[in-house]
Amino acid sequence: MMNYQIRIKGHLDPFWQDWLAGLQIAYEPDGTTLLTGPLPDQAALFGVLLKISRLGLILLSLEAHKAAETQEYRIGDANHPDTTSSKPTELNNLEENNLPCKHE
């Protein structure tokens, strides 16, 4: 199982927590929302990303962490202050995987 951190623009109402696979919702001081928690597989991740898109939210970054490893993968805005160097994953970017996403 992988743990994910998904950063979106704006503050998301806690009402959506159950609908977003139970990911924890935390508000960041920079005006973003951080969704965190485990997801069982990539299908669950794609489901959450699709729901984010359908809500019209702007995806800023996505981090995946294996529980037993400290290796980190990031997808998102390279200019975001919390972004480090990216490493290749099966999800090179959202457009390559036909996931709709909004761009500013």
Describe it.
This protein is mostly beta strands. The chain has one domain (2-97): Alpha-Beta Plaits. The protein is 12% helix and 32% strand. It is built from one helix and five strands; from the N terminus they run βββαββ. It has one helix spanning 42-54, and strands at 2-9, 24-27, 32-39, 59-66, 72-76. A five-stranded antiparallel beta sheet has the order 2-3-1-4-5, with helices on one face. The radius of gyration is 13 Å and the shape is globular.
Helix content: 10-25%
User: Per CATH, which architecture?
Assistant: 2-Layer Sandwich
Approximate shape:
globular
Alpha-beta classification: mainly beta
Radius of gyration based on Cα positions: 13 Å
Count of structural domains:
1
**CATH top level class name:** Alpha Beta
What's the SSE pattern? EEEHEE
Distance, first to last CA: 32 Å
What fraction of the residues are assigned to beta strands by DSSP? 25-35%
The overall pLDDT, averaged over residues, is 77
The major beta sheet can be summarized as: 5 strands, antiparallel
CATH topology: Alpha-Beta Plaits
Uncertain stretches of 5 or more adjacent residues: 79-104
Number of helices in the DSSP assignment: 1
Question: How many distinct beta strands?
Answer: 5
Strand order of the largest sheet: 2-3-1-4-5
